[in-house]
Specification:
This protein is mainly beta. Helix content is 9%, strand content 48%. A 5-stranded mixed sheet has the order 1-26-25-24-23, with no helix packed on it. It has a 5-stranded antiparallel sheet with strand order 10-11-12-13-17, with no helix packed on it. β10 and β11 (146-152) form a beta hairpin. The model is unreliable at 2-21 (pLDDT under 50).
Amino acid sequence: MHKTLLYLFLFFTLLSCKEEKELPCKEEKGFTIKSDTIELNIKGRSIYPLKYKGIYYSDFIEVKDEPTFIPKGTFCVFNKKGKILSKAKLIGYGTWNTGIYVQNDSIVLKENPDMPDAVSYYWDKSKEAWLKTKVTDDGVFEDDNFYVYALDYGEWGAATIFKDKKTGIEYDANILLPRVYNVNGAYYLVTYTQVVKVTDPRKLNKVKEGFYYNKIKKDGLRVFDSGALGRSLQGVETVYKSGEEAYYYNDFPEEYIAHAFVYNNELFLIMVKDNTMYVARINNGALEKVKEFRVWIVIGHNNPYRNAYLNEGVGFYLKEGENFKTGLLEIKCNTIYLHYIKTKK
């Protein structure tokens, strides 16, 4: 009798574990947009929010009256019910640009994600602290065949490099800090103004073996000055373009790409035009609107290109009068969630 009860217990335990696994997306027509609010007993405005494996990570900045580039605030780890799991002091704000992202199953902070030699940290869950680590690489995508790096040197130039895992050979695409998605075996590189398709990275401009580490990491800006990078679009097919590539937000075209995602083996874009936002698919180089947002939010202030395929969401904010609402946009199958993050005033 006891053995029978034990077997039944184990059976239902295994069954419940299976049920907890995320089910594959069913093919549904259209998209649904839902919103909820996570309330936290903490001060400050959420910036650089990140969700990974069901847990939220964010810096919370307390805005000061006096002008300063070094804000006051707290780094916080929390769950969807608003329970704070860990807190720590802010780090990495000695420079204008910083960001939190996922790398090698860790939460990483790089003081300046655009530069290869910036100081890096990883979040140690057991010690509840940021620990310094060796300078992290600049990978933005990885699969069984390629490792993709992306570097940005502002007005001097940018590089997106595919490294063949089997041969070590590197190939260069002249694309500015793309988010990379694999759809049906092809690589789609998405920036704020265009979507390009790379069917076979081995047909891109070939650069010298070890180019990324031996040249870019060593020579920095001189690589672009000397023309060592091919700056080539060989092997790149443009599937959509809204305007010329823009480095600064103020230079974006009237209509630009705020985010992208894959659903049922198809790439979808979240577009912004004036004060409207909508989901679109690409059809023969043109956009086909499939769903419009009721609210207009600003997306992508947390290095959205970096390992986008690992992230469960992307940060956003919404300005209502003098007040800011911040949160995380998450896409599960055909449902788009706006998780607002509310803090104490």
